Amino acid sequence: VFLLVFGVVLLAARAVAGGVGILEISLAFVCALLAVSSVHIALSWERVVVLRMGKLSRVAGPGLYFTIPILEHGTIRVDQRTIATPFYAEKTLTADLVPVTVDAVLFWMVWDAEKACLEVENYPKAVLRSAQTAMRDVIGQLNLADISLRRKQIDRDLEDILGKKCEQWGVTVMSVEIRDIMIPKELQDALSKEAQAERERNARIILAEVEKDISE
After folding, report:
1. How high is the pLDDT of residue 84?
2. Contact at 8 Å (CB) between 9 and 30?
3. Between these two residues, 155 and 14, which has the higher pLDDT value?
4. How many Å apart are CA 126 and CA 170, to the nearest integer?
5. CA–CA separation, 55 vs 78, rounded Å?
6. Less CB within 10 Å around the terminal CB: N or C of the chain?
7. What does the pLDDT look like over 29-79, one tens digit per residue?
8. Contact 173/119 with Cβ under 8 angstroms?
9. Which of 111, 107, 93 is nearest to 155 (CA)?
10. List of E strands, 16-95
11. Cα–Cα distance between 86 and 123 in angstroms, integer?
12. Which pLDDT does position 86 carry in this prediction?
């Protein structure tokens, strides 16, 4: 593109001026640079939001697209593939005041590049912060025992909450999956001892019932 425009402008200037000088070469060089800056390529999964003098002009891509030098520029390249974002909710208090750390993965994608660019400053960061906040709200309504038993329900609740919130940013939340729930080590020991005591109690009850049956 650079060489083509440079050559065309140089030939045109030569035909008009009758010769080639520093002025003609400088003019051809500037025109070639402007031509190069106006040609762009967006990948198959990308959309580019183009602004003209600060106002929304269009959403370009995929493939080859052109902009007017100086007047237009591509503000952001939006990846429309499915994105997997890991996130944590650290030391979140449950309804029975137990601090837990929840490790989860959020699967989401941008369906409207225009909204993602214009409605929020940094849409990946906004989605991440919203996921962490929603996780804390959901965990805070459940007891520790309920979290393990209702993990799938928590995933669905988070998906609904985030889906409604992120829709205004042109983002679709596909799913939320909890990978791990971590509790403090000292509490793990206490729960282990409690479970062990419960199993021992059940074993003694069963043994007593068996001895009673044998005695009868």
Report:
1. 93
2. no
3. 155
4. 12
5. 18
6. C
7. 888 888 888 888 999 999 999 999 888 889 998 999 999 888 888 888 999
8. no
9. 107
10. 39-42, 46-52, 55-60, 63-66, 72-79, 83-93
11. 15
12. 92
**H helical segments located in the chain:** 2-17, 22-37, 113-118, 123-139, 144-149, 151-166, 185-215
Question: What is the SS3 assignment for 71?
Answer: coil
Q: 193 vs 74, which has greater pLDDT? A: 74
* Residues, the chain: 216
For residue 138, what are its two tokens? Answer: 């959901």
SS3 call for 78: strand
Phi-psi region of 90 (alpha: psi -120 to 50; beta: other; left: phi over 0): beta
pTM value is: 0.72
Report d(CA 140, CA 144) in Å as an integer.
10
Q: What is the pLDDT of residues 90-148, one digit of tens each?
A: 788 888 778 888 889 999 999 999 999 888 888 999 999 999 999 888 888 888 778 77
Q: Once rounded to an integer, what is the mean pLDDT over residues 12-26?
A: 79
Cβ of 200: how many Cβ atoms within 10 Å? 10
pLDDT level of residue 28 (50, 70, 90 thresholds):
confident
Alpha-carbon distances, residue 78 vs 37, 43, 63, 92 (angstroms): 20, 10, 14, 33
Amino acid identity of 32? A
Per the structure block, which two tokens stand in for 117?
Answer: 């660019």
**Tokens standing for residue 131:** 């996921």
